[in-house]
Write a structure and sequence with these properties.
- The structure is a single chain.
- Helix 1 packs antiparallel against helix 2.
- The chain has helices at residues 5-20, 28-44, 49-55, 102-121, 130-149, 153-162, 164-174, 179-212, 219-225, 231-248, 257-264, 267-292, 294-298, 300-322, 327-346, 351-382, 398-412, 418-433, 435-460, 477-495, 498-520, 534-538, 563-566, and strands spanning 61-67, 70-76, 79-82, 98-100.
- It has a domain at 299-495.
- With 568 residues, the protein is mainly alpha-helical.
């Protein structure tokens, strides 16, 4: 099983969506049970990955190198690798290659956990087109997992786009009054970023061929060739990838789609959007932008621009949250502030900043996912999110008020809870890079406490002033159960974060080392990649190509490549 554990985790939700197709749409309870069962199974099959990954934590993984006319494995960072480069669509050089390191491992576990929690929270909230809702949610789960597992840039882009349609439909069909506006805005913003990223991917693809003679989307091969791009081309490519990922984060000023999407999305949609989808942007910055273009990322001007945008997002998001009258919009703008800390840590470009950033991404998924569940529970009972409609809720819903306080304290970064560890480590790394950046970021922590505590005071403290709130029922066992794993994780990370830092240390240390090494290496003059005619790339010159029997895996359109040129 261990050899194919990533594929099992990846496609379990998709199997559930396929089975839902055969259940009559009138049988809503059966649909709910099947969807929840497969969501739980999706989480359970990911649990064996934890001890398996921990057991290999200090062992070398693998990477792929094209050498002597074939792909071979060498010691590298990837664990649980499945597939071979250029094996899926050989004609274009794309392969079904999966693998993970510590960064993607944590994000995969977050995705499987939040996936079943989100689906469980939808039991009573979704009453119309139940079959389609759960089917699309499970498809979305597969798309998100694929993004974090892919070691082929073409495969990554397929999964990146595959999750776009389900999220668009979840907002556009099961959302609030302005659902179509929010869904279209989300779709257009994300698609615009994807187009820029696709152009960058194609440039890297042809550049890889121009210097090695091999057409491939393999991530290891691109890690070797992309840093050689210099000059204006590297700068433009960096911004193409950066904008595509910054829209997904979202960073200021690309954030305007987020509040609308959050407010109009169903509760589970908001949980998975905040908990996982936004992390795809920060993951892309770490996995692609930094290692592909280290010189640009280290450029003082570029770095300062990104840091300033992050700081603006931290302060602006927190200030706007203070002014909100709608609870869900308040939580949505808080995400802009919290993700600003994550991008700040990334571009501190040191081990503390990057480790803190990834951990804070996990923390944000836990805490903000819980906040959206909290808002959704009140909305299901009262069908309003206006803060002025509430007051004294702790008198009628004491269990709900207690859980809310724990998750509010988690989100604001109280010591002994998860948020504190991530923010402190980010600020530590930022201070090491530039104390002024850290000083500007600190007010974001104070403002987070202000808007969350003020919200709690208005909603939960005092007497019940609105008669409609006197009959509210406290949490059901099912609703309590959705919060239990989130509270456990918040306490675990807050009290004992050492295992998480141990998991992150090897990939983060390697990333920082590679960035510094590539930044010091001389850049190759930028040149426009030349696309060879199809007849040329498919012709095989006997004097250049090894016999077919000696090549374990043919490389499609690279038969005419001289092996000496194809090696790194």
């Amino acid at each position: 099983m261990e050899n194919h554990i990533l594929s099992i985790i990846l496609f379990t939700p998709l199997v559930g969506a396929f089975i839902l197709m055969f259940i009559p749409k009138e049988n809503k309870d059966a649909i709910r049970w099947v969807a929840n069962i497969f969501a739980v199974i999706g989480f359970l099959v990911s649990i064996p990955l934890v001890p398996a990954f921990w057991g290999q934590l200090h062992e070398a993984g693998v990477k792929f190198v094209f050498q002597g006319g074939q792909w071979i494995q060498q010691p590298g960072p990837w664990k649980f690798v499945e597939g071979m480069p250029n094996s899926w669509i050989p004609s274009i050089g794309s392969g079904y290659v999966l693998g993970i390191d510590g960064i993607s491992f944590l994000l995969i576990m977050l995705t499987t956990m939040l996936g079943w929690i989100s689906i469980l929270s939808s039991w009573n909230a979704i009453q119309d087109r139940v079959k389609e809702y759960y089917a699309w949610f499970l498809v979305l789960q597969t798309g998100m997992l694929g993004v974090f597992m892919s070691l082929d840039l073409f495969l990554f882009f397929v999964f990146w786009e595959a999750m776009l349609v389900p999220m668009y439909l979840l907002i556009g069909i099961w959302g609030g009054p302005r659902k179509l506006y929010a869904a279209i805005k989300f779709f257009l913003y994300t698609l615009a970023g994807s187009v820029l990223m696709l152009l960058g991917i194609l440039y890297l693809y042809f550049h890889q061929h121009s210097i090695t003679g091999v057409y491939t989307f393999n991530l290891d091969a691109l890690y070797a060739s992309a840093p050689q791009i210099g000059g204006t081309a590297a700068t433009l490519l960096f911004w193409a990838f950066f904008i595509g990922f910054a829209i997904k984060v979202p960073m200021f000023p690309f954030h305007t789609w987020l509040p609308d999407a959050h407010v109009e999305a169903p509760t589970a949609g908001s949980v998975i959007l905040a908990g996982v989808l936004l992390k795809m942007g920060t993951y892309g910055l770490i996995r692609f932008s930094l290692p592909f273009f280290p010189r640009v990322a280290m450029n003082p001007t570029v770095r300062t621009v990104v840091i300033v945008l992050s700081l603006i997002g931290i302060i602006y998001g927190a200030l706007v949250s203070l002014m909100q009258k709608d609870m869900k919009k308040l939580v949505a703008y808080s995400s802009v502030s919290h993700l600003g800390f994550c991008t700040l840590g990334i571009f501190a470009l040191n081990q503390a900043g990057l480790s803190g950033s990834v951990l804070q991404q996990i923390n944000h998924g836990i805490s903000t996912g819980a906040l959206f569940l909290i808002v959704g529970i009140l909305y299901e009972r009262r069908h309003t999110r206006e803060i002025s409609e509430y007051g004294g809720i702790s008198n009628v819903m004491p269990v709900y008020a207690t859980i809310t306080m724990i998750m509010f304290l988690s989100s604001m970064g109280l010591p002994l809870l998860n948020g504190f560890v991530g923010e402190f480590t980010i600020l530590q790394g930022t201070w090491a890079a530039n104390p002024v950046w850290a000083a500007w970021a600190v007010p974001g922590v104070i403002l987070a406490a202000a808007y969350l505590l003020w919200l709690y005071q208005r909603v939960f403290f005092g007497t019940v002033t609105n008669p409609k709130n006197e009959t509210l029922t406290d949490l059901t066992p099912r609703e309590v159960f959705t919060f239990v794993p989130l509270m456990i994780m918040a306490l675990w990370i807050g009290l004992y974060p050492k295992p998480f830092f141990q998991i992150l240390e090897p990939p983060v240390k390697q990333l920082v080392t590679n960035i510094e090494a590539n930044n010091q290496a001389p850049a190759v003059a930028a040149q426009t990649p030349v696309v060879a005619p199809a007849s040329d790339t498919r012709s095989a010159a006997p004097t250049q190509t090894p016999p077919a029997a000696s090549v374990p895996l043919k490389v499609g359109a690279t038969a005419a490549v001289t092996p000496a040129r194809a090696g790194r």
